[in-house]
Structures are given as structure tokens and as C-alpha cells.
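Format notes (please read before filing issues)

Several people have asked whether sequences and C-alpha cells are stored in separate files. They are not. Every record keeps both together, in the order shown below: the sequence lines, then the C-alpha cell lines. Line labels are part of the format and must not be stripped during preprocessing.
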Amino acid sequence: MTRPLTGFDRTLGPAVLVLAVALACFELTGTDLWLQDRFYDPGTGRWLVDAADPLGRLVFYDGPKGLIILTAVALLVLALGPARWRERWRFGRRDLWVAVLTLVSVPVLAGWGKDTTNTFCPSEIRRYGGDVPYVKVFERYPENDRPARRGRGFPAGHASGGFALLGLMWLRRSSAWRLGGLALGLGAGWWMGGYQMLKGAHFLSHTIVTMLLAWIVMLLWRRVVRPAGSGL
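Then the structure lines:
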């Protein structure tokens, strides 16, 4: 029997629209620079968070990244393993594949974007002590001021792993589980993305766009892995 679409599933179209609006707003305003200025002290040349601090890197960077990789591996094992493993956790195989594919594809998509957009991180631009001009995602570099290297700042690669945890929303069909998965994905994404912003590794636009892309990718995998005929 086909189940109706959930309220979350119906947000795919609106999410694409919000993504387009967000990109336009950041291109047409100076919001990124205005916010990033609050995290940087031009007198000392330091960011609000020290990127070299080992505890901060463990808590906000290496630790979360390692846990996300372990989560993806564990879910893949459950998806490929015998049915009794999934029954023990009350996870469906299709739901597991949605989570696994989201966890893998969102960081891959972010990596492709970083290779393609040629956008630099805040700490690399002259306004914050770097050596390249500030250019937005859809702008061109000045003919007489083109960087010798390519930028890899957009979208936010580190935060993409946290936001990809949104795929865990569908492992069970209860509202409490889905809300918990939503909170986990958004919380982890902003935990990791906020750290990057505070140490000059990303602008706000990089993190917001990554969050919206993760949501869209997750819902697209829902449609691919669980087509309408099988019930969402």
C-alpha cells in the first residue's frame, strides 16, 4: 500500500527555491563580510577561534569527522548484512540506503563544488590578512588581479558531513525519530560549520548553501531509493 508523502518530503520544491533566494541574497549584499568582520581582529590579525588549538580541532573538526565516517560505515554494514541485523534495530534496508547515500554524496558534492567554483576562504582574502581579492561565487576576478592558484572555499566541505546526518531521519518512521534526526543533522552541521566560520575558513553563505544542498540531496535520494509506488 502506498503511503502519502510526509510533510518533510513536500519541502523539496521550497528548498530549491530557498537555495536560489539565498544565493541571490548573498551575491547582492555584503552580509558575508559584515558577519565575518565580527570574528576577526584586524589589530592583531587573529580570528575569534585559533585554528591551531588542538582541543578545538579535536572537538569541532577531527572528532566529529571521525564519528560521521564510523556512522556511515556502520550503516553500510547494516544495509549489506543479513536481515536479522536490521530487524534488531528496526531499520529498513531502503531507509538505510537513503542514509548511506546521503552521507556519501553530500560531501562528494561539496568537494566537487569546491573544485569548480574557485572561491577563497575568508582567511585567504586581503581583507583578513590573505593575499587574494575578495570575489563572490558568481563574480569574475579582475583581469589584472587573478590569483595564481584556485580557491577551494565554496561550499563548506567540513560542515557537509554534519549536515549529511540528516539522512538518518528516515531510519524509523516515528515523528520523534525524524525530529531527532533533523536536530542531529542541523546541530552537527552548524557545530562543525560554525567552528569553520569562527576561525576564518568559511563565510556564512558557504554554510547555509551547504545545509540546503544536503537537505535537497537527501530528499532526492528518498525519491530514487523509495519511489512513489513503494511508499515513502
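For reference, the curators noted about this record: The chain has a mean pLDDT of 93. The first strand starts at residue 40 and ends at 41.
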